[in-house]
């Protein structure tokens, strides 16, 4: 898919993405901006597919649009009402808007020039050195999984994935540190919306099943821990919205679930050092099993992490400083 | 340990394990576990640094895959220098944080976030891969934002601004990495640099992107406005770590990309030098005008970072002269280390004063030398390093920069360390004189004081003494900094 | 006409018809005056429009597994949009009493600002 020449559809898609971003930035109401952001996310997912990166498209749709969208909508409906014109920051210096506009324009120019020279170089140079695709495909027999992207993520360049999981963990830590961790009690059963409860009872198991499928599909087709974790987070967030999700009593359980994924990754890393002399090294015989095990626990941790970020917002209105 | 290359992974994965551990432990276990973890991490980093100093650069192939398919960790002299700095300053700040809960924002989440910053910093220093550098810098930046936000309500605005700056910088860096990868076909640092050099690619735009990205993160003037509010409103231990270590990581990545990957850019080098000079001047003037101690120290960071950017024009104009190159690298290394210790010490002292007296307003801190002589002494000793007086590392660094600028025929740059030293002395003497003299008649009486423990009173002084001692160590630092130096660049 | 060409033609007709429903639904979203009428337009468009598009794609699917997955997408989207529409029209309440932060929808806020 990524090798097709750029066609009319792609140009339209690119323009639509830019239009979506512009709408999100200039919308007069916050909800309008959030919805434009969601639309932008969907368009981006399609764009990634057109570029031949279905794993990224899945991640964009699940995390970028799904979970992040839920966070935005929750923040917009729970936050303090916009008492001042949108865009003004408390305590902002006069003229800050103009300065922001100038720096934004400068950044856009820089990025555009940089990417433009890349295009020009690629068009003029002809054959590029080829990158690493050939190398990856050549080693797939000892990778332990059949999907090249999963092999890169969890075997060849597993250190990067580990650090990225740490980034997610750090984000969760920062959010819970700033917003606090206590969760309010859910409304009593009589007060819950019956339709939503029914929907949750039907859908949540389906979503968990889809999450498991996406996780195991990652071995030989697009999928994997991050996408699976996002679907799992969707299920947990749905449950929370219906009043059936984790409550104040589940703090311990959530914390353990958060830690278990990165911990498993670190254990495998240390095991690699002990067994093979290098951190994160995977013996080809065990590689497949270890990767699946680590991915499963990672998916759990990622799902819980995204949910915890969502739950932290549920503490009620965040009072401005 | 038989294979010291395993230490390369340990200095990153050790703190990462501590992040997980301190994230789930109950609160009263955190200080002792934190201290033990800091001790272990520092020891590993120092052993690694010593090994590199003795035997040259060390490498480690992660996951058993060598480059270009896998990620390689690599520590050379520059890495060793920064690793050792982070280890010692980190240990000092951890001791302080374990002794004074207010220094951590009185929040247990300080500990996992602090170890995440430490892990990220070490990951940046030992990274041998371009994309890995980007991810490690993200870890550092996001954890630092979280730490700033621990300062409570007044810190949220500055933390958010810091987040925007950090993410913008990371995005630009990622685009630059993508450009390099597209041209070089590999993500490994050394190989990419060689391929770029041999292909004769015009790396100007990538260099501009890298400079802007890392200038944002290192608060290079004019992109510095986010730093004073963030460093000033963060909890004490956080400010110390941010000013002493986190901004240096961005400078480290800039040096790596400039000398090892992208290649010489003479015009851009002069621009960087001018911006550095401007930072020294502008940061110093603004520091003079501040009325709160923490703000003085924060603006001082902006000013002191300016000296580091003189490295670029000085090496660019050196034309391969080994003496000039050695002086330029040695001077920069000395200033990095000296500033790291001195700035951490200053922030810890300011934090002690604030927690004991409840204020850091200069007009109210008169005559605190009586009850807290060790703290004021610590501030004085740190000022010696920052102003560049002998025998401190600050003096050694500035002296070597002057030597390099004279030796390369660019006399103009010599004015920056000299003039900057005077400015530093001015803005640091100002609070010190307030603290040493009797309060004016109309001044408010000293607020009720809380007691400060022994460790809290002496940790800043000990940290400040290190650059003085190291200043007597002579050529050890320039030797370390240039072990495994840049291709065609170092002696 | 061969079976393959017939299949492609049928698939194209179905997808275009589905897109037509989506267009009509969007028109309704933009032009109708208040929340409930807009929901009416949207849900009709969503269910049948999506269904037609999915049916058209099923004809092009390479295997029974892929076809089944496409149908699952439709079967999951239908209850989701139905439940959301139901809740929004009832006053946006997530509990029986409705939460304080959400009002009874925001009709008539002006055409271009409506979200």
Name the descriptors.
heterotrimer, B: 491 residues, mainly alpha, two-stranded antiparallel ribbon, 2 strands, globular, C: 115 residues, 0% strand, disordered C terminus
Structure, explained:
Chain C: Keywords: Membrane, Transmembrane, Transmembrane helix. Chain C: Belongs to the CPA3 antiporters (TC 2.A.63) subunit G family. The complex is a heterotrimer of chains A (321), B (491) and C (115). Chain A is mainly alpha-helical and 321 residues long. Chain A folds into 2 domains: 79 residues, NADH-ubiquinone/plastoquinone oxidoreductase chain 6, subunit NuoJ (Four Helix Bundle (Hemerythrin (Met), subunit A), Up-down Bundle), CATH 1.20.120; 178 residues, no CATH class. Chain A contains 11 helices and no strands. Chain A starts with 7 loop residues before the first helix and ends in an 8-residue tail after the last helix. The C terminus of chain A is likely disordered. Chain B is globular, with a radius of gyration of 21 Å. Chain B starts with 5 loop residues before the first helix and ends in a 10-residue tail after the last helix. Chain B contains 19 helices and 2 strands. In chain C, helix 2 packs antiparallel against helix 3. The radius of gyration of chain C is 18 Å and the shape is elongated. The termini of chain C are far apart. The C terminus of chain C is likely disordered. At the A-B interface, helix 4, helix 7 and helix 10 of A face helix 1, helix 4, helix 5, helix 6 and helix 8 of B.
């Amino acid at each position: 898919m990524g090798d097709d020449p750029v066609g009319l559809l792609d140009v339209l898609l690119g323009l639509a993405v830019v239009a979506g971003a512009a709408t999100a930035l200039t919308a007069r109401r916050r909800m309008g901006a959030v919805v434009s952001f969601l639309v932008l996310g969907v368009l981006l997912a399609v764009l990634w597919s057109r570029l031949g990166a279905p794993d990224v498209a899945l991640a964009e749709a699940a995390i970028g649009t799904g979970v992040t969208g839920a966070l935005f909508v929750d923040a917009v409906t729970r936050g303090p009402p916009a008492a001042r014109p949108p865009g003004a920051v408390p305590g902002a210096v006069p003229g800050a808007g103009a300065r922001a506009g100038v720096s934004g324009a400068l950044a856009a120019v820089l990025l555009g020039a940089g990417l433009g020279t890349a295009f020009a170089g690629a068009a003029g140079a002809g054959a590029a050195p080829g990158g690493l695709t050939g190398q990856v495909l050549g080693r797939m027999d000892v990778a332990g999984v059949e999907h090249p992207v999963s092999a890169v993520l969890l075997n060849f360049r597993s250190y990067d994935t580990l650090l990225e999981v740490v980034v997610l963990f750090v984000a969760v830590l920062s959010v819970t540190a700033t917003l606090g961790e206590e969760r309010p009690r859910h409304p009593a059963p009589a007060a819950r919306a019956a339709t939503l409860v029914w929907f949750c009872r039907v859908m949540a198991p389906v979503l968990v099943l889809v999450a498991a499928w996406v996780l195991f599909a990652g071995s030989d087709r697009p999928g994997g821990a991050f996408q699976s974790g996002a679907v799992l987070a969707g299920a947990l967030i749905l449950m929370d919205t219906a009043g059936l999700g984790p409550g104040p009593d589940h703090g311990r359980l959530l914390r353990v679930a958060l830690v278990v994924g990165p911990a498993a990754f670190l254990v495998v890393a240390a095991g690699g050092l002990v067994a093979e002399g290098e951190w994160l090294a995977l013996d080809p015989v065990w590689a497949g099993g270890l990767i699946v095990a680590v991915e499963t626990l990672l998916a759990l941790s990622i799902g819980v992490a995204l949910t915890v970020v969502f739950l932290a917002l549920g503490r009620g209105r965040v009072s401005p400083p | 340990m038989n294979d010291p290359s395993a230490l390369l992974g340990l200095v990153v994965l050790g703190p990462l394990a501590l992040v997980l551990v301190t994230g789930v432990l109950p609160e009263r276990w955190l200080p002792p576990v934190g201290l033990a973890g800091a001790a272990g991490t520092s020891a590993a980093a120092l052993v690694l640094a010593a090994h590199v100093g003795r035997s040259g650069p060390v490498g480690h192939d992660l996951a058993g895959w060598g480059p270009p398919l896998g990620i390689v960790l690599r520590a050379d002299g520059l890495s060793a220098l920064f690793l050792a700095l982070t280890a010692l300053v980190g240990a000092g700040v951890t001791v302080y944080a374990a002794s004074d809960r207010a220094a951590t924002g009185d929040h247990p989440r300080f500990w996992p976030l602090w170890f995440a910053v430490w892990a990220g910093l070490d990951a940046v220093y030992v990274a041998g891969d371009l994309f890995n550098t980007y991810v490690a810098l993200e870890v550092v930046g996001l954890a630092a934002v979280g730490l700033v936000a621990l300062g409570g309500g007044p810190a949220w605005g500055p933390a958010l601004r810091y987040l925007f700056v950090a993410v913008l910088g990371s995005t630009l860096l990622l685009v630059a990495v993508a450009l390099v990868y597209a041209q070089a076909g590999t993500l490994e640092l050394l190989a990419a640099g060689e391929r770029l050099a041999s292909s004769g690619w015009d790396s100007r735009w990538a260099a501009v992107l890298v400079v802007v990205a890392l200038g944002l993160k290192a608060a290079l003037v004019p992109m510095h406005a986010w730093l004073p509010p963030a460093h000033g409103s963060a909890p004490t231990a956080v400010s110390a770590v941010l000013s002493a270590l986190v901004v240096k990581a961005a400078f480290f990545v800039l040096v790596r990309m400039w000398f090892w990957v992208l290649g010489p850019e003479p015009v851009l080098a002069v621009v960087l030098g001018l911006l550095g000079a401007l930072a020294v001047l502008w940061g110093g003037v603004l520091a003079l005008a501040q009325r709160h101690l923490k703000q003085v120290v924060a603006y001082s960071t902006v000013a002191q970072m300016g000296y580091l950017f003189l490295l670029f024009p000085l090496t660019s104009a050196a034309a391969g002269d080994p003496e000039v190159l050695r002086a330029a690298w040695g001077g920069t290394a000395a200033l990095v280390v000296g500033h790291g210790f001195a700035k951490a010490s200053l922030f810890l002292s300011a934090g002690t004063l604030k927690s004991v007296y409840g204020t850091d307003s200069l007009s109210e801190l008169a005559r605190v030398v009586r009850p807290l002589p060790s703290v004021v002494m610590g501030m004085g000793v740190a000022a010696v390093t920052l102003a560049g007086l002998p025998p401190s590392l600050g003096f050694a660094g500035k002296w070597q920069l002057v030597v390099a600028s004279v030796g390369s025929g660019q006399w103009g740059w010599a004015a920056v360390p000299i003039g900057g030293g005077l400015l530093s002395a001015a803005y640091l003497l100002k609070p010190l004189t307030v603290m040493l003299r009797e309060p004016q008649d109309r001044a408010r009486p000293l607020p009720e004081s809380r007691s400060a423990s022994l460790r809290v009173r002496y940790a800043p002084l000990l940290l400040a003494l290190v650059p003085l001692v190291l200043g007597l160590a002579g050529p050890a630092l320039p030797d370390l900094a240039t072990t495994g130096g840049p291709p065609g660049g170092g002696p | 006409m061969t079976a393959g060409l017939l299949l492609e033609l049928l698939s194209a007709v179905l997808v275009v018809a589905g897109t037509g429903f989506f267009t009509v639904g969007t028109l309704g979203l933009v032009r109708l005056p208040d929340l409930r009428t807009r929901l009416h337009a949207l849900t009709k468009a969503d269910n049948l429009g999506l269904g037609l598009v999915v049916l058209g794609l099923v004809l092009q699917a390479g295997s029974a597994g892929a076809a089944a997955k496409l149908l699952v997408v439709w079967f999951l989207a239908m209850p989701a949009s139905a439940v959301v529409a139901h809740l929004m029209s009832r006053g946006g309440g997530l509990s029986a009493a409705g939460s304080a932060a959400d009002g009874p929808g925001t009709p008539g806020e002006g055409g271009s600002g409506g979200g």
